[in-house]
Every structure is written in structure tokens, then in C-alpha cells.
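Researcher: We're teaching a course module on how sequence relates to structure. For the next exercise, students receive a sequence and then see the predicted structure as C-alpha cells, so they can try to spot secondary structure elements on their own. Here is the exercise chain.
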Amino acid sequence: MTTRIFHNSDVHFGVENRAALDAFAQAVHAEKADAVLCTGDITQRCKHSEWASARDYFAQFSCPVVLFAGNHDMPYYNMWERMSDPYARARRLIRGVGSTLESDDVVLVPLKSTVRIQPRFPWSDGFVTKRALTQALEELETLKEDPRHKLIVCHHPLLGESDSAKNPTIGGDAAFAALAKAGGDAVASGHVHTPFDLTRERGGHAMRMLGVGTLSTRLRGKPPSYQVLTFARGEPIGRELRELPA
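Model: And here is the predicted structure for the students to work with:
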């Protein structure tokens, strides 16, 4: 038996690519995906109308739909709400159409990489707090003897494009090293709108980074894309990148 997760990110309702979204949905239905995973930036400006569009879209799937918030999913115009309860709108969507994945092959370990405010600009880049990392490590500790694949799920890539490049995610290097040491097999993320499949190593522990592109019109030199991740115990994680017409 295997588990197939159809992973998208950065759908940016408000500036979404409707043809790309339709193609993704058709594949999920036709191929009977075991789960849909969206790693954030569900909306463009966190407007109520954008969340309503997201709800209509994700509600169509009969398989589990696992949703995470990205930096665009905090209020953009309402600074009071951003400071007091930045994820309230995202939580409503997750409660309404989101669910959890129960699989014999893989377990998802969430890692929050967004913060409402940070000591630099832009606020859109990743920031892994000590609290967020501790929560992920505590979950990995409970899974120490679990034979399933451990997939870390976050919005921002934990490392830069290369080891020689500056890492835009504050706390990302420490998080990657700690999670790899604790038994993480791979990290699924989005944010950069360009796909990648890299294996990096820190402190003698390797972990795979599986990044997907966008299903919005906000392209950055690459076509819209999503990826199908396949998990089976004792087998390497399978990854199929699917690029779509712009």
C-alpha cells in the first residue's frame, strides 16, 4: 500500500490561476488522491472574499484536505487583527473544510514558519521561533519508534537556494539541523513559487527539501505547478512534479 499526497502551495485566491486550479482538482478527483496538502498563501490579501473562494474550492474534495497558513494569510489591511489574532481567518477555513491525514505510510509534522511581525523588512520571509521548533521536535520525539515517513510541513523553505547563499528564513538553519537529527525525512514547503527537490545535510544528518511552485498568476520564471508525493514504508519518498500551462 502507498499514500499519495497532492501538494500545492501559494494558490493566492484573489490572483489565482483558475485553469491551474481546475487542472489540479481534476487530477485529484480522477486519480483518487489520498490527501490534498496546501502549504500556505491561500489568499493574496487575506480578504473575506478570498477566504470564501478558498472555502468553495477546497470543499469539493472528498479526501482529507490539510491546510496551513502562509505569510499572505494574515490580515494585510487590518493591523489590529494582525497583531491580536493573525490566524483567525485561516482557522475558520481549516475548521470548515480542513481535516487531518491518517496514514500507515506517512505522518505530517507541522512547523510554523510565519510570524505576525519581525525585526526586519519584509515581513514576508520565514521566521522559525524557538517555540515553533520545540513543538515540532516534541512531536518527532513521540514518533521516534514509528516506522512511517516523517514529513515536516511548513510554508517557507528552511534553507536558502544553496549552502553558499544567504538563508532568508531566520532560524531556518538551526531548525533544519535539529529536525534532521530528530528523524525528519523531508520538508514540504512553498513560498518561493519555484519548485525544487534538494537533499541537504547538517551535522551529519541529511533531509530532503521538496518545494512546489504556485497555482496563481504570480509566476517567478516558472510555470504553475504542483507535486504528487508518494509514501510507502521502507521505500524512498516518490515525487512527481507536474507543471501546467501558464
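Model: If you want an answer key for the exercise: The longest helix spans residues 18-30. Strands lie at 3-8, 35-38, 65-67, 106-110, 149-153, 186-189, 196-202, 205-211, 225-231, 238-243.
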